[in-house]
From TrEMBL:
Transmembrane intervals: none
Species this chain originates from: Candidatus Ozemobacter sibiricus
Designated name of the protein: 4Fe-4S ferredoxin, nitrogenase-associated
Domain 4Fe-4S ferredoxin-type: 16-49, 50-80
Keywords: 4Fe-4S, Iron, Iron-sulfur, Metal-binding
Record carries keyword Iron-sulfur: yes
GO molecular function, one term: metal ion binding
Length: 84
């Protein structure tokens, strides 16, 4: 299935590889709360104590906005084809 997706996800001659959130490292996270604000799918949520959680990983669109905007590198995304 991943190969089929890769053939169809091209834009401007570049192939987009679908990704998913693999890691949210709480030891590194500063609890700034920015990643839940930028996630277009609402996958990340900030709970009462300020901690960020991956609330609905199945809704992840693989856009990597969270990973790219995390200033401390607490979020890591992997290619969808690597998903266990």
């Amino acid at each position: 299935m991943a190969g089929h997706l890769l053939r169809n996800l091209t834009k401007g001659g570049k192939t987009w590889i679908p990704r998913f959130i693999d890691t949210l490292d709480r030891r590194v996270c500063t609890r700034c709360g920015f990643c839940p604000k930028v996630c277009p799918a609402g996958v990340l949520h900030r709970v009462d104590d300020g901690e960020v959680v991956i609330a609905s990983p199945e809704d992840c669109r693989g856009c990597e906005v969270c990973e790219r905007t995390c200033k401390v590198g607490a979020i890591r995304c992997r290619p969808l084809e690597d998903k266990p």
